[in-house]
Structures are given as structure tokens and as C-alpha cells.
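Pinned message: reference record for Thymidylate kinase
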Amino acid sequence: MKTLFKNTGYKLYTTEQPESFKISFSYIRNTDGSLRWFWNSKSKKPLFLKFYNASSFKAKLYAIAVKLVFELGLQNLIFEKEILYYKVEGNPIFNIKSDWAMFTGTPGPNNKALLYTAGSFYKIACTETAKDLLINEFANMRFASASRLYTVPKTVLHNGNILQTDDISKKGKRSNTFGRIHAKTVQGITQKYQRCCSISEWGYFQMLKKEINTLSDERIPSNLLRKLNSLLEKVDETERISLSFSHGDFTPWNCFLHHNTLSVYDWELASCEKPKGFDFFHFIIQKGILIDKRPWKSILDEIRHKNRLTFHFNEDELYHHLKFYLLINISVYLKIYSEQKEWHLQIHWLLKTWTEALNHFAKEIYTERELLIMDIFDSLHTIPYAALKFHDKKPEKLSLNSDIDILMSSQNAEGLIRFLKRNSLAERVVVSKKSYMYRVRIITNDKQILHLDLILKIQWKGFEFMNVNKVIKHSVSNEYGVKTACDSDTAKYLHYFYTLNGSEIPEYYRDFTEKNISENKLVKITDHINQLKMNTKRRISFLKDTFIYIKDTFSEKGFVMTFSGVDGAGKSTVISEISNLIEKRYRRPVKILRHRPSLLPILSVWIKGKEKAHLDVVSSLPRQGSNSNTFSSFARFCYYYTDYIIGQFIIYLKYVLRGKVVLYDRYYFDFMADARRSNIKLPKSIAESGYFFLMKPKFNFFLYASPEKILSRKEELSYQSISYLNAEYNKLFSKLGKHNNSAKYIAIENNDLNDTLDIIMNSIITAK
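Predicted structure (C-alpha cells):
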């Protein structure tokens, strides 16, 4: 404060000095306790509101409340104040006894204070860098001033470190919405200077590229920096770029609307070296992040929409210019922030959105799943957590079959889930809450899956065997900025987990656990494990624990899938592969059933016995039954239909409600399309009517191939039979698909296994 006033012609003292004068300052602090605004306590008007962007509803309410306080003369009771003493030194630029207010500015190397008094703003440089910026701003305003498309306030430079500008807010209003007048202004600024050059000739870009390569600040999320560097390195140096004059900080808080003209101030970052469209992108992005607090996908939608008002870029041009805006703006501000001691909250908002904004262009380098993993760990950068059993490579190199276990508080877990639901890479986020964790499944736009276990308590059968907060406290950051549980805690967890669950520690973990658990610790852990097992037998809160266990078990329902088709269509192979994919990538347990629930045995068991009946089924060819009697066919059908009617509830309670995925190798559809296979000869309408009373499986896949292809795999059916059955199944699935929107009936030509698996997995993943 003393330095500020010295620049304006006054010297301040905290105690009375000879020939000094007494004055009282009122002030408002920042959240960190530092001064934000202060003013002459005798002021009758809240002039500090001149520095406040009262454009949102909440901000407007605050401004109204402050004005009411001053109208009622209660300001000296409401706001803090301090008695100081001053002397006049030199030629003061304002009268300290008059009405005035001062804003201390944003801390950092570019820090400037802002004084308002007598209808003018005075920008006061607090550092040498800020002084250079003021001189640059004065020159920029002179260059930008002559335009019929916008106006610039009159400006005077005092002593090289104070810039005086007229108050253009009188009879003007701020507008947060980028409209036609803003578009006209941006076009007017751009027309001041334009040129085209290759990237290799663009000196400003080349300078920033070198500076970013040397940037080192642990506060900057490492994956944001890695993405930025990767994109900078990938830029084609021979590519052409359109540069133009730009304001550099064209935002709602640097503009006032007067009738049909925009008055623009704060030109210190103006330059002729910015990519075309810089001001257009900057206005929408800064407003979207700092005022609206919107996710990137919403901001990008506005950019696409407002492009029609401004430059009318085609899609390729729009993304080309947006890419270079992001590369330049992020590089500039990361450099500034790295030199800034204290960071305000808004910096973290900007960093989170920037790293997501880069994803659109980083897809050339990384998959969406990899980018999402990078975004997750960047979003957790300032939050206490510990990744459990996480590899020590680049975080995005996580195996497709692996999930991420993260220890964190419930509040932080909920915050991460909100972040994921807003992320533009996530098409769908499914959350299953258990008593001790959140299980999160994320489906990316390109249909890849990522699973997170956000662990709130480390427990076994309701007993906590390790303290989450202690593990987080002992976490260590690796070279990629990922905070992982330390080796001793990880080894301890692995030993507890496998021993408590009655299994041996896998070989690939054994050396690690032995190396990181001493003999003394192992004895203590063993004693604790024995104690835990005894406690489970003596537990007092049995009913409570049972209720929690049941709730956790049924926290997420499973579903039923069926596979139909003639013998040789490849069902067994597909079911085996899909079962593996669902367990490894979809992270759900699987139960495979053949044909029906099998609550009742096959009919021949009652006559031949179980072993002989099953041996006959395996050794016999399909569709060889000779039954043509309607009565016996109906009795046979009723027997198996009873199995479906009753068994479906058993399957639902036993597997589906407990989160398992049930795969049927053949299903009830055989009775509708190929009843002869079950030695039944009845009108199709009977079996079709029976299907109405059954629970509809969520996914039903009919696998088919040409008769030639099937006969090359299995010679169990004739060419005519295969053609007939393919047609019947196809007709049935088409009919069922038209009459049932809640279940999917999909026919797949199974010529290529990988293509078939992709179709099936995509169907599961994209289903709501």
C-alpha cells in the first residue's frame, strides 16, 4: 500500500509524523486475508464497485446490497477501517481527501493497482514488468484508437508508470453475451493488421515453444503440460497461419456497451502476433470458465454457434484457429502463473478447462480413454488421494483390462464424479454406491470403458483393516504427478487382501510384499488378521452388518444376454470371448447357462438317468427327433415352458439382482424358430404367445453366416436346413425388435470374430 501511494505523490505512515495528516481507510479483504479494495472512509459512494463485474445474478445482488449500505450511511459500521497518516511528496495525481477507491490487482509479476477518482481510472505499475506493460498498452491504444467499429478511452501516461484513462462506464452497460456488436468489434480490431506466414517464421510461437519446454512448476498439472508439449512438437513447421492485431484480453469485464458501439479498454496485452480469431475465442472461453463456470463441451457449442456471427470459418478453419489460440494462450499464462507465488482459485478453474480443451486436438496422439485418465489425475492434482496398486509408467498406459483404485474422502469422490459427468470425453457415467466405495464406469465417446473404484474405507466383511487417511497421508507423487500409496502400505494392503479372502498372494506380487514387509510387521499383521476373523464370528451388530452387505451386494443389477443361431454359427466361441471381455473390461461377473434356466432336467433324465441322458444329448446330431404327436409335443413344451416361467425368477434373484451378467447359449427363441430341435411339433403361435409372459432379456443376438461358411465349420445340418433356419431366426428377430423397445434384438453376420465382438460390446456399452 505504501509503495502504491508513493507512486501517486503521497507517503503513508502507520503512526503520526511531524507535518503529517490523518486519514481513515475502509477496506475489503480477499479470502486469503490480503487487501482487495480500499477507499477513503469519508466517501459517500461505493466507488470500489467500479472494479466489480456485476453481471451475474449473485453479483448484482451484492452490488445492490453495497449501494444500500452506503445510502443508509452504514458503511463505517459494516466495513473494516484503519487510521493512517500521510505526507504530500511531489505532485500528487489525485486528491487523497476526495472520493476515491483503489483495487490492489491480481498478485504476480504483472501486478498493477487500479485507482478510480474524479471520472478517471489510474493504472499503477507495481513491478518493472507491469511498467513495461503500461508503456506497451499506451502505444497499443494509440494504434487501435481510430475505428468506426468500436471506441477506445482517452489515455495519458504519467511518469512512465501510471496510465490514466477516461471512465467509459458512464451511461454504458456490461454484456456477458457475445452478440453482433462484439462480433463487429472483433472484426474491426482484426482489420487493423493482418498477415500470413509459415509456423517456422512465426517468431512469437517459436519463443513460447522454447519457454514451455523449460517450464517446471509442480503446481501445474503434469498431464496438461505433457499434452501441451506433445501438441507443440507435433505442429507442422511448414503449415501456414493467419495472424492479426488482437486486443489479447477481450472479455466482458474489459468492455462497455454504449448504444450500438462497444467501448474497449485494458489494451496491455494487445499484439500483432496472435492467430486470427484470438479475441473471439478468448471472450467466449474466459466468460464460460470464470463467469458461467460451464464445462468445455458447452463452451465449444457456443464457439460453433457464435462463429456464424463473426468470421464464418468452415469447420476445419474454426478448429485450426482454435487450436493455435489454445496453444498460445495456455503457453503464455502457464509461464505467468509459474512466476506467481500465490494462486487464486480461478487459476485452477482455467487449468481444468484448458486440459480438457486440448483433448480435441490431442486425439491424434492419444486415445479418448488415455486422455480421460490424464484428465482424471489432473483434476485430482490439488486433492489428497492415493492410487492403489497403480503402475509406475505414464498414467494413460494403463492396460485396457485394468481399472483404477483410488483412496479418497467421500466429498472428493463426489467431486470427481461431478467432474466426470461434465467431461466432454465421457458419453456416459454409471455410478454404483456401496457403503465403503463408489464404483464408477465411464463410457467414452469412442466406446471405450474405464472403471474407477473410489474407495472410502479399506475393509473386509465390515471391519476396517487399514486407515484410508493414513495411507493418503503417506502417499508419494511419481514423475507423472500421480499420488500413489507408498510401497510399505501397498505391500501391507496386498497381504491383508489376499490372506483375508483365503487366497495366496499372486506370484507377481510375492517378491514385492516380502521386500516391503519386515518380519516384525508380518507378525503384527498376522495377529491382526486372526483377530479380524475371530471378530467376524463374535460380531454384535450382526443385523446391521447383514443389511449393509445385502445393500452392497444388490447395489447394481446385472442383465441377461442370449445367443441364438444354427449349429456352426460360432456361438460357443463368441460366448467364451464375450464372457472374458465382460469380466475383464466391463468388470462384471458372468454366469453362462445353456438353453434355459435348467431348474428342471431334460426329459430323458427321468427315463435314462442323468449321466446316460446327457451322454446321448452330446453324441446325437441336432434336429433328429421324430416326434410328430401334437399331444406329446404340447406336454414336452409345457414341461420346458414351466422351467422358463419359474426358473426366470430364480435366475433374476440369484444372479441378475446381485450384479451378474447371465449369458444364455441358446434361449426360448429356439421354440419359436426351431422347435424341431427340441423334438416339438406345434403351431408357432403357441410358442410366440408363451414369450409374452417371460421376462425379456436385455440383449439378444442372432449369429448367422452363409451355409457354405457354416458347413466348413460343422457338417451337422444340410444346406437347405441352414438356409431355412437362418431365414426363420432373422424373421423372428426382426419381428420382436419392432414390438419391443426395451430389449435389443440384433442379427450379426459372424464372419469375423473381432467385428462380431465389437458389435456386441458396443451394444452393451451404448445401452442405457
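Pinned by admin. Summary line: The chain has a mean pLDDT of 88.
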